[in-house]
Amino acid sequence: MGTPSKDFGQELSDQVNDVLGRLASKDMFQSTWDIVAFAIFFTFIGVVLLMALLVLIRCFCCCCDCDSPRSYNKVPRRKVGIDNKAMEP
């Protein structure tokens, strides 16, 4: 049994050769699991890019009220309860 670095180097070399072989034969997807993994990966990337695009649109949107962006969240506060005069100095 070789050292772990040699095993890792050999495994990496095998993976690279496998990918290059698939590219040369133009047969990237050898099983249905390859197709599923590819679809899930690109769905994830698409969702991340869509979310980034929505954040950029929200940040740079000209149609929203830029002077008071949180004006719709302000609720008028009123005093609740009674004053405890014994607690005042």
Automatic annotation (TrEMBL):
<protein>
    <recommendedName>
        <fullName>Small integral membrane protein 22</fullName>
    </recommendedName>
</protein>
<keyword id="KW-0812">Transmembrane</keyword>
<keyword id="KW-1133">Transmembrane helix</keyword>
<dbReference type="Pfam" id="PF15831">
    <property type="entry name" value="SMIM5_18_22"/>
</dbReference>
<dbReference type="InterPro" id="IPR053081">
    <property type="entry name" value="SIM_Modulators"/>
</dbReference>
<keyword id="KW-0472">Membrane</keyword>
<dbReference type="InterPro" id="IPR031671">
    <property type="entry name" value="SMIM5/18/22"/>
</dbReference>
<feature type="transmembrane region" description="Helical">
    <location>
        <begin position="35"/>
        <end position="57"/>
    </location>
</feature>
